[in-house]
Amino acid sequence: MLPFCGYNMGDYFAHWLELGSKHAGGLRRSFCVNWFRKDENGKFLWPGFGENSRVLEWIFRRVEGKAEAVDTPLGRVPAAGAINTEGLDVTDGQMAELVKVDSDQVKDELPAQRQHLAKFGDALPTELRKQLAALEERLRA
To answer: Of 121, 130, 117, 105, which Cα lies nearest the Cα of 34?
Structure first.
């Protein structure tokens, strides 16, 4: 986003944090996916586009409070069996790998995250600094 933002990204982040604080319950939830995660042989773990609706189904159910999730240092991921895999050639082990959060890998990336956020200097909102510190604390736990 840096090349496309016409002003300091720290101010941009602050804008969105302020906007979220003005709405009861905050802004809408956000969900991240990695459709392209591969196994040790380089084969995609998730069967592909036609099945992405199964993940979206879990997201919709999660928003409604009807889908199970497991806490990780990065947030919540689908609990075992929470995504409908009926009729798919996906094992429980593959599903576990798909939602796995590798805390060591996240720890290894923290210096690069700190370096990136340092670019914004004093304009970086305190809340983002607190979130990074909280992530580091969760990774130590």
So the answer is: 105
